[in-house]
C-alpha cells in the first residue's frame, strides 16, 4: 500500500491530465468532421446530433454500471481499459464509415466503443484527483486545474486537426482519428505504471442509499445535468455554428469556434485552479451561470459574425467551472461518497451532455423545415434557434445555485467545508 508521505503522485497527476485530454479528443474530433460527414455521407442535422447522443448515452450507461461496481474495481484496471477502448474507437471511426454500406451505422458503432472508454475515464479520474494529497482548501482548485487539461486537449485537437485537414483532401479525413489514437495508447501505458491511491473502504464510504436521502444531493444531480448541457450544446456545435450561422469558411470556423471556446474555458479553469483557494466556489458558479445565460441569448440573436464569435468565446469562460465545481461542491458536502458518488454525478452530467446538443440539433431541423412558426421572428440560422431554446439549461443552473445558497444547514458553502 502506498502512503501519501513516501510516494510522489506527480506522474499520477500528469496521467489524470492526459486522460482529460483523451476525453477531449473523443468528444471534440467528431464534431470537427460534421461538415465532412454531412457532405460525404449526406447525414442530417439530427443524425449528426444523434452521434453526440450515442456518445454520451453510452458514457451514461457505463456510469450507471459503475454506480454499483466502481468502489470494488480499484483505479488501475478501469483506467487502463478506458484508454485502450478510446484508441480502438478512434480507429473504428476512421475505418468503419468507409467499409460499411451504411456510413452512419459505422459512425455509431465507433462512437459506442470510444464512449465506453470515455465513461470509465469520467467516473474514475475525478475521484482519483480528489483522493490525491492536497490541502483541504485547495481540493476544488486542484480539480479545476486537472479539468483544465480537457480544454487544452480540445485546443490541441482542433488546431492540429484543422491544420492537417486544410492541407489534405477532405476525402482523407480518416487520417485524423487514426493519428489521435496514439494519445490514449500512450496514456494506457502511463496508468499501468504510476502509483495510485486506494478506494475508500466499504466501512467508511457513504452508501448511495444514504446519499439519495439528502435533498442537497438531488440539487447537485440537477446541477450536473445543467452543467453538461450548458457546456456541450455550444462546444459540440461551435464549428458548424461559426461556418453556417456566421458564414465563416471551414478553417476559420474550426479555429474561431471550438478553439476560442476551449481557450476561454481553459483559462477559466486555470484561473480557479490558481486562485480558487481565495474564491468562493458557489458565488463563482452563480456569476458564471448568469454570464452563460447572457452568452446564449447573444449567440442566438447576434446581429453580426463578430458579436457572435465573441459570445461563443465568452460562453467557454462562463461554463468553465460548472462541471469541476459541481464535483468539488459535492465532494465537500459528502467527503466519503467515494467513486460511486462520482459515478452517480457522471450519470446525470452525461444526461445533460446528451440532451443539450441533441435538443439544439432537433430544434434546428424543425426550424429549417419551417415547423416552428412561433419562433419565426428569429432572423438567424436554424442552429441559432436551437441554441436559443437551449438557454433553459444555464438558466436552470442559476436558479438551482441560488437555492443552494439558502440551505445553510446543509453546509453548502464550499469555502467552509473544503
Description:
By secondary structure, this protein is mainly alpha-helical. It is built from 18 helices and no strands. Helix 1 (10-32) packs parallel to helix 4 (76-99), helix 6 runs antiparallel to helix 14 (322-333) and helix 10 packs parallel to helix 15 (338-368). The chain is globular. Residues 1-5 and 406-418 have low confidence and may be disordered.
Task: Looking at this protein, list some descriptive labels.
mainly alpha; 0% strand; 77% helix; 418 residues; disordered N terminus
Q: What topology does this entry show?
A:
Blueprint: H1 10-32, H2 34-41, H3 45-73, H4 76-99, H5 103-131, H6 139-167, H7 175-180, H8 182-191, H9 208-211, H10 215-245, H11 250-275, H12 281-301, H13 305-319, H14 322-333, H15 338-368, H16 382-389, H17 392-404, H18 414-417
Structural class: mainly alpha
Q: Sketch the topology as an H/E string, one letter per element.
A: HHHHHHHHHHHHHHHHHH
Strand content: under 5%
Q: How many strands, which pairing sense, and closed or not: the largest β-sheet?
A: none
Poorly predicted regions are 1-5, 406-418
Bin the helical content. Answer: over 70%
The average pLDDT value, as a whole number, equals 83
**For the CA atoms, what is the radius of gyration?**
20 Å
- Count the beta strands: 0
| Distinct helical segment count | 18
The coarse silhouette is globular
Distance between the termini: 26 Å
Amino acid at each position: 500500500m502506498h502512503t501519501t508521505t513516501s510516494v510522489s503522485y506527480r506522474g499520477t497527476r500528469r496521467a489524470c491530465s492526459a486522460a482529460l485530454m483523451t476525453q477531449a479528443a473523443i468528444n471534440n474530433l467528431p464534431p470537427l468532421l460534421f461538415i465532412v460527414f454531412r457532405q460525404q455521407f449526406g447525414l442530417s442535422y439530427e443524425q449528426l446530433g444523434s452521434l453526440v447522443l450515442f456518445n454520451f448515452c453510452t458514457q451514461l450507461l457505463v456510469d450507471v454500471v459503475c454506480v454499483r461496481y466502481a468502489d470494488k474495481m480499484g483505479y488501475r484496471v478501469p483506467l487502463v481499459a478506458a484508454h485502450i477502448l478510446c484508441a480502438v474507437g478512434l480507429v473504428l471511426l476512421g475505418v468503419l464509415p468507409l467499409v460499411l454500406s451504411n456510413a452512419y451505422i459505422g459512425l455509431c458503432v465507433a462512437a459506442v466503443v470510444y464512449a465506453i472508454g470515455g465513461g470509465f475515464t469520467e467516473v474514475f479520474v475525478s475521484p482519483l484527483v480528489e483522493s490525491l494529497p492536497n490541502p483541504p482548501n485547495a481540493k476544488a482548485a486542484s480539480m479545476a486545474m486537472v479539468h483544465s487539461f480537457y480544454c487544452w486537449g480540445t485546443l490541441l485537437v482542433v488546431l492540429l486537426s484543422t491544420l492537417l485537414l486544410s492541407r489534405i483532401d477532405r476525402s482523407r479525413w480518416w487520417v485524423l482519428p487514426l493519428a489521435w489514437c496514439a494519445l490514449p495508447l500512450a496514456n494506457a501505458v502511463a496508468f499501468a505504471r504510476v502509483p495510485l491511491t486506494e478506494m475508500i473502504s466499504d466501512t467508511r464510504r457513504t452508501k448511495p442509499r444514504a446519499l439519495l436521502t439528502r435533498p442537497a444531493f438531488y440539487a447537485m444531480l440537477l446541477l450536473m445535468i445543467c452543467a453538461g448541457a450548458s457546456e456541450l450544446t455550444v462546444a459540440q456545435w461551435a464549428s458548424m455554428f461559426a461556418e453556417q450561422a456566421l458564414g465563416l469558411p471551414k478553417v476559420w470556423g474550426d479555429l474561431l469556434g471550438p478553439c476560442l471556446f476551449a481557450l476561454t474555458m481553459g483559462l477559466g479553469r486555470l484561473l480557479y485552479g490558481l486562485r480558487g483557494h481565495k474564491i468562493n466556489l458557489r458565488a463563482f458558479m452563480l456569476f458564471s451561470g448568469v454570464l452563460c445565460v447572457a452568452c446564449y441569448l447573444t449567440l442566438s440573436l447576434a446581429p453580426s459574425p463578430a458579436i457572435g464569435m465573441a459570445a461563443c468565446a465568452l460562453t467557454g469562460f462562463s461554463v468553465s467551472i460548472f462541471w469541476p465545481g459541481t464535483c468539488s461542491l459535492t465532494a465537500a458536502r459528502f467527503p466519503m461518497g467515494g467513486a460511486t458518488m462520482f459515478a452517480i454525478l457522471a450519470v446525470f452530467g452525461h444526461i445533460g451532455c446528451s440532451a443539450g446538443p441533441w435538443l439544439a440539433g432537433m430544434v434546428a431541423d424543425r426550424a429549417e423545415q419551417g415547423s416552428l412558426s412561433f419562433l419565426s421572428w428569429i432572423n438567424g440560422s436554424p442552429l441559432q434557434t436551437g441554441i436559443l431554446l437551449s438557454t433553459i439549461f444555464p438558466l436552470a443552473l442559476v436558479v438551482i445555485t441560488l437555492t443552494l445558497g439558502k440551505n445553510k444547514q446543509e453546509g453548502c458553502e464550499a469555502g467552509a467545508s473544503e
